[in-house]
Amino acid sequence: MSKVKRLLTEAERIADEIMADLEPYCDRISVAGSVRRRKSEVGDLELVAIPARGAGGLFGTIATNLLWEHLHASERYHFTKGDNPDGRYYQLALAAYPDLQGDLFLAEADNWGLTLVVRTGSAEFSTAALARWKRRQGIGPEQAGSVGGRLVRRDGEVVPTPEEATVFELLGVPWIAPEQRHGGLP
């Protein structure tokens, strides 16, 4: 799929349309990436979502990913990567917009904030944020500062990040608006 740059206003309209379609199947959903950073031109559409869970299986005893089921049931979306109900990322081709890639990053309640910060980007900003976390925790280059989309302390303890504000507090920096998230951290 070739990427075509779109003006921000068009990308926002498409994002709103897709989010309205997906919202009933999510506990939470937000636009991320260059649309959220309000870049004048957008090459792909990035969303972060916490899928809603529902009863499934023969006896209704298995929690199923309702978002994944909806994406499969709809003719609007086609998986190009990550077709796994328990996955953390779905890359989607959008039937109505064949030249627009949809990236859907999945979070849970305890890592929503980190996922939204990282997926809003920019890539340089996200890298700087994770590097700052590692420095503040005294984590060396041989050890990861995040595992499975969650911040971890030097001892491996997972640190919940339910909101973006939590991430900035943990980094020791004031809130940075999405449109200001480029380059490194102050």
Helical content (DSSP H or I, runs of 4+): 25-40%
| Strand percent estimate | 25-35%
Could you describe the largest sheet, including whether it forms a barrel?
Answer: 5 strands, mixed
Q: Which outline best applies?
A: globular
Compute the number of strand runs: 12
- Please give the CATH class of the largest domain: Alpha Beta
Order of helices and strands: EHEHEEEEHEEEHHEEEH
Which fold name corresponds to the CATH topology of the largest domain?
Answer: Beta Polymerase, domain 2
What gyration radius follows from the Cα positions, in whole Å? 17 Å
| Class by alpha and beta content | alpha+beta
What is the CA–CA distance across the termini? 37 Å
Which superfamily, in CATH terms, is the homologous superfamily of the largest domain?
Beta Polymerase, domain 2
Question: Kindly state the mean pLDDT as a whole number?
Answer: 93
How are strands sequenced across the largest beta sheet? 2-4-9-8-7
Task: Report on this structure.
The chain folds into 2 domains: 6-106, Beta Polymerase, domain 2, CATH 3.30.460.10; 112-180, DNA polymerase, thumb domain (Beta Polymerase, domain 3, 2-Layer Sandwich), CATH 3.30.210.10. The protein has helices at residues 8-22, 33-36, 66-73, 112-120, 123-137, 164-171, and strands spanning 6-7, 26-31, 41-42, 44-51, 53-56, 62-65, 77-81, 89-94, 97-106, 146-147, 150-152, 158-159. The strands form 4 sheets. Strands 2-4-9-8-7 form a 5-stranded mixed beta sheet, with helices on both faces. Strands 10-11-12 form a 3-stranded antiparallel beta sheet, with no helix packed on it. The chain has a two-stranded antiparallel ribbon with strand order 1-3. It contains 6 helices and 12 strands. With 186 residues, the chain is of the alpha+beta class. The mean pLDDT is 93.
